[in-house]
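Action item from last meeting closed. Structure (367 res):
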């Protein structure tokens, strides 16, 4: 079906509302809704709130009611298929039906098995016209982690790297503060904030003692911190133990005394060994999916970066490149020497943007 310029503009408004929920809704998807009269007047709008609170459609209906608007025969532009199941909130498709809307335009179907076309089917059964596919790709990008978790059972893995133009993340002596600019660092915090979890390795914890929380941008929540620590060597004095932030430590060898100390600090310890007494990275991602993690933001050293890439577990690289040359230093990833170019891991540039004086590159593996 083809859509008009006016319809596209209304869906763009709904997508803008969904982006306002970028840091808010996890593990639920970010959804926006705009309700429009038959005459083309916006009657109400809203986006999904925190998990357990109102979804976008209900917020838009409430907004219309607060303004004294009658939504009978109106059209709702929604960035994701209205839910059809009773969870912590009621079915949104029923709310739209009861409000008397005549039409619902949906950007993208919901891959959640509890919905997966049932919301659209229920609207059809009630006589509501439903059209699907307007700006669907944009809606998918907004919820790329939710879509992956629903279809594959694992989160979207985004690996963040800050480097010089010649690909070095630190000097040979380990100094890295700061290769990239303040705008790039602030932008990096915004990407942290939208993730459900930040992942790092024990090497980074011991060498840099980072907090890895969100500080440079306002956020209503802190993402969970996930640490790969095969031998449970995380120091109890580490700065990563931020108050009220969940810390999950994945290990391969259980040391009861070390576990007890970490648990006393509030960490949760999960033992998932592979045959080499390292953390089973694929099993870890499966576990994170079961824990409702949609997006994992990796900020680690070259060893863990290399392990994730070699295992084909990275969905996207978020690379900030500074306009300077460092020479010999520490690289982005330890992939090991290749003997032929055909063994290289091909990527495609999804997006390239200037952030202050630096370049931000989103690159995705060619599958």
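Sequence:
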């Amino acid at each position: 079906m083809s859509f008009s310029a006016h319809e596209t503009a209304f869906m763009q408004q709904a997508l803008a509302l969904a982006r306002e929920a970028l840091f808010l809704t996890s593990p639920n998807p970010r959804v926006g809704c705009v309700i429009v009269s038959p005459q083309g007047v916006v009657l109400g709008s809203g986006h999904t709130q925190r998990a357990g609170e109102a979804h976008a459609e209900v917020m838009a209906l409430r907004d219309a009611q607060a303004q004294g608007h009658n939504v009978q025969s109106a059209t709702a532009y929604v960035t994701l298929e209205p839910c059809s199941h009773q969870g912590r909130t009621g079915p949104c498709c029923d709310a739209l039906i009861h409000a008397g809307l005549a039409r619902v335009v949906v950007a993208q179907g919901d891959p959640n098995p509890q919905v997966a076309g049932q919301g659209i089917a229920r609207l059809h059964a009630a006589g509501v016209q439903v059209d699907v596919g307007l700006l669907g790709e944009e809606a998918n990008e907004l919820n790329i982690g939710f879509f992956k978790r629903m279809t594959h059972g694992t989160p979207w893995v985004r690996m963040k790297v800050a480097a010089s133009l010649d690909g070095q993340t630190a000097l040979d002596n380990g100094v890295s503060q700061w290769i990239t600019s303040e705008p790039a660092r602030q932008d990096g915090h915004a990407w942290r904030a939208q993730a459900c979890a930040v992942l790092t390795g024990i090497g980074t914890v011991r060498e840099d003692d980072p907090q890895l929380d969100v500080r440079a941008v306002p956020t209503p929540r802190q993402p969970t911190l996930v640490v790969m620590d095969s031998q449970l060597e995380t120091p109890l004095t580490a700065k990563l133990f931020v108050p009220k932030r969940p810390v999950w430590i994945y290990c391969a060898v259980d040391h009861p005394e070390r576990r007890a100390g970490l648990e006393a600090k509030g960490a949760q310890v999960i033992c998932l060994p592979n045959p080499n007494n390292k953390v089973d990275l694929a099993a870890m991602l499966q576990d994170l999916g079961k824990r409702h993690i949609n997006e994992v933001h990796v900020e680690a050293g070259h060893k863990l970066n290399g392990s994730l890439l070699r295992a084909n577990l990275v969905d996207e690289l978020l690379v900030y490149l500074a306009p300077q040359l460092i020479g010999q230093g520490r690289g982005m990833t330890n992939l090991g020497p290749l003997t032929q170019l055909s063994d290289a891991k091909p990527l495609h540039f999804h997006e390239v943007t200037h952030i202050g004086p630096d370049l931000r590159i989103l690159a995705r593996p060619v599958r």
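Note appended to the action item: Residues 33 and 70 are 16 Å apart (CA to CA).
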